[in-house]
Amino acid sequence: MQPWQAFILGVIEGITEYLPVSSTGHLLVAQHFMGIGTASATEKAAADIFAICIQGGAILAVLGIYMKRVMQMLRGVLGQDPDGLRLAIMLIAGFLPAAVIGVLFNDKIEEKLFGTTPVVIAWIVGGVLILATAWWRKRNPLVGSGKDLVSMTLKMALIIGLLQCVAMWPGTSRSLMTIVGGLLVGLSIQAAVEYSFLLGVLTLTAATAKKAVWKVDAAGVSAKYDVWFGGMKLLTDTYSPVALIVGIVAAAVFAAIAVKWLVSYLQSHGLSIFGWYRIALGAGVGALVLANVVPS
């Protein structure tokens, strides 16, 4: 992988990670067009790990933007801020469903669903879901002006966490499910977006750590990677450290831009634009699959 390719993937990761459009789906398609991960099973596994690890840049972006919230939660854990402790508990509650289901079914999901056709289906279905949510909000104008983060309950957090699990299907979008989930359980649009971003820090950190530390047990990959830190060893054996650094830095910069833009945009606009984008993208890539330009 050349540094310019790592940069493009980092830009794509940064822009799409927190927008409700699916970073995984965009990265899978981008990797295909750049010929990354196509040479062998080993390179394919390394490309998948690279796509996960550059999420570290997106994590850093949100930590920087929401540092006050993070510090509030830290004070809460230390017994100095009741609201901070409550928010920390709500985040852990929202994270637990994905942690359990991810451990039990992640390998099967990757085996069955990491392909272009499942991504296209998820893009279109997710787009329809966004448009349906936008329609519902118009008919229910009080939705989106609901509770703030400190008013969340464990039930609300668990519902959002269960919806986040749907995003394990590549192309669905973690932020889509958590933002829509937040609105459905009664959060304000600002609270739903902020909770989605903060929950993403936990979820993405866990996913990145798992890929780096866990064993690599993919079919056709050498047994030497079926050891602890096998993911990181495979990554460094396949790609240069420069590529990883470039990808992480690009993801951090563009994630910060995307997060700030989304928060500002949603102040006066709805989610509909993302629904139409997903449907158009799904239709376009789906046409390429039918024309055998892109593998299914």
UniProtKB/TrEMBL annotation:
Chain ranges passing through the membrane: 49-66, 87-105, 117-137, 149-170, 176-202, 242-263, 275-294
Membrane disposition: Multi-pass membrane protein
Enzyme Commission numbers on file: 3.6.1.27
GO molecular function: undecaprenyl-diphosphatase activity
Pfam family, one: BacA
Domain of life of the organism encoding this protein: Bacteria
Catalyses which reaction(s): di-trans,octa-cis-undecaprenyl diphosphate + H2O = di-trans,octa-cis-undecaprenyl phosphate + phosphate + H(+)
The entry's keywords: Antibiotic resistance, Cell membrane, Cell shape, Cell wall biogenesis/degradation, Hydrolase, Membrane, Peptidoglycan synthesis, Transmembrane, Transmembrane helix
GO BP terms: cell wall organization; peptidoglycan biosynthetic process; regulation of cell shape; response to antibiotic
Enzyme class: hydrolase
One GO CC term, this protein: plasma membrane
Misc. remarks from the entry: Bacitracin is thought to be involved in the inhibition of peptidoglycan synthesis by sequestering undecaprenyl diphosphate, thereby reducing the pool of lipid carrier available.
General function of this protein: Catalyzes the dephosphorylation of undecaprenyl diphosphate (UPP). Confers resistance to bacitracin.
Family statement: Belongs to the UppP family.
Protein name, as recorded: Undecaprenyl-diphosphatase
Organism: Luteolibacter yonseiensis
